[in-house]
Amino acid sequence: MTEQIVINEKEALVKKYRIRPTGKGGATLETSIPKEVFCREARRLGLTFEEALEKLVAVWRYNNFRGLHLSFEPATDKEKQ
After folding, report:
1. Is residue 42, in this structure, part of any structural domain at all?
2. Averaged over 9-35, what is the pLDDT?
3. Would you say residue 68 lies in a domain?
């Protein structure tokens, strides 16, 4: 990913969600994604909400900057299972 992402804190919508342990021994954490964010991406791609649930996966990028970056990308056949 070479695109630089700049967040204007004054214009950003901010929602806070609890974080819950999940998986075997709490190996991962789970939180919510605002439905409106997912619906907006579905519309941008010309998909209905239901189609987007079937065709997209959530992709988190992290490690070389503070925080996380979430995008929605087409699911591979393996990821659709």
Report:
1. yes
2. 92
3. yes
Closest CA to 13 of 30, 37, 32, 29: 37
Whether residue 58 lies inside any domain: the answer is yes
**For residues 53-77, average pLDDT:** 90
DSSP 8-54: -TTTS-------EEESGGG-EEE----HHHHHHHHHHTT--HHHHHH
Q: Please, are residues 45 and 52 in contact by the beta-carbon 8 Å criterion? A: yes
Query: Residues 72, 55: contact at Cβ < 8 Å?
Result: no
Give how far the C-alpha of residue 79 lies from the chain's centroid of Cα atoms, to the nearest Å.
15
Mean pLDDT of 33-47: 96
- pLDDT in the model for residue 64: 77
